[in-house]
UniProtKB/TrEMBL annotation:
<keyword id="KW-0378">Hydrolase</keyword>
<protein>
    <recommendedName>
        <fullName>Peptide deformylase</fullName>
        <ecNumber>3.5.1.88</ecNumber>
    </recommendedName>
</protein>
<comment type="function">
    <text>Removes the formyl group from the N-terminal Met of newly synthesized proteins. Requires at least a dipeptide for an efficient rate of reaction. N-terminal L-methionine is a prerequisite for activity but the enzyme has broad specificity at other positions.</text>
</comment>
<comment type="similarity">
    <text>Belongs to the polypeptide deformylase family.</text>
</comment>
<keyword id="KW-0408">Iron</keyword>
<dbReference type="GO" id="GO:0006412">
    <property type="term" value="P:translation"/>
</dbReference>
<feature type="binding site">
    <location>
        <position position="150"/>
    </location>
    <ligand>
        <name>Fe cation</name>
    </ligand>
</feature>
<dbReference type="InterPro" id="IPR023635">
    <property type="entry name" value="Peptide_deformylase"/>
</dbReference>
<dbReference type="Pfam" id="PF01327">
    <property type="entry name" value="Pep_deformylase"/>
</dbReference>
<keyword id="KW-0479">Metal-binding</keyword>
<feature type="binding site">
    <location>
        <position position="108"/>
    </location>
    <ligand>
        <name>Fe cation</name>
    </ligand>
</feature>
<dbReference type="GO" id="GO:0042586">
    <property type="term" value="F:peptide deformylase activity"/>
</dbReference>
<dbReference type="GO" id="GO:0046872">
    <property type="term" value="F:metal ion binding"/>
</dbReference>
<feature type="active site">
    <location>
        <position position="151"/>
    </location>
</feature>
<keyword id="KW-0648">Protein biosynthesis</keyword>
<dbReference type="InterPro" id="IPR036821">
    <property type="entry name" value="Peptide_deformylase_sf"/>
</dbReference>
<feature type="binding site">
    <location>
        <position position="154"/>
    </location>
    <ligand>
        <name>Fe cation</name>
    </ligand>
</feature>
Amino acid sequence: MLQPILAYGHPLLREKGKPVSLDKEELDTFIDQMWQTMRRANGCGLAASQVGKNLCLFIVDSRSTYQQMENAARQALYENGDTGIEEVFINAEMISRSGDVWVEEEGCLSIPSLSQPVARPWSIEIRYLDKELVQRQKVFSGNTARMIQHEYDHTQGILYIDHLNPVARKLLMSRLKKIRAGKVQAGYPMCFFR
C-alpha cells in the first residue's frame, strides 16, 4: 500500500526517530510499503518519518541510480567494484565519516521540485540492523554514502537544506513556503501540514 509522503513543514520531519520495536511481521509490512512508496515517487531513499512513523528506519537504493548512469558518472560517483545497494537500515548509528568531502546536488521527496549542492563526506562507517534484524557494520563511499547520510539525517530530524549556508537557505524561503502551503505538485501523493 502506497503511503503519502510528508511535505516540508510537517513537524514529524524535525523529530529524532525512536528505536524500532515493531514485531517482525508488522516491520516487514511497513518496509514493503516504504519500498513501494519510494519507487512510486521515483526516489532513491526514504525514511520512516517521511511516511508518518517516527522511527529510526530508512531504505536506500543506490543500485538503480548506478544502473541509469553513464560510465563516466559511475566512475566519478562510485568506488571501483561498487554497483550500489538496495538496503534497509534499522536503528542505524553513524560510527565515522571521512575528512574527504565532496559536493553534489541533492533533492528530497519531502521537498519536491528543489535540489541544491550539498557537501558531504565521501565515505562513512555505519552500524545498523538489516531487514532480517542482523547487525551489520559497513563502510560505504561515494554516491551510496551520500544517500545513506541523507536518509540517516532524516532519522535525526535533519533535512538536506540544513547543510546549506544561511544565504542559500534564505534564497529558498519563498519556494519552501509554497511547499509548506501545498502549492507545489509532486507527481506522487503528499501530506501537507497546515
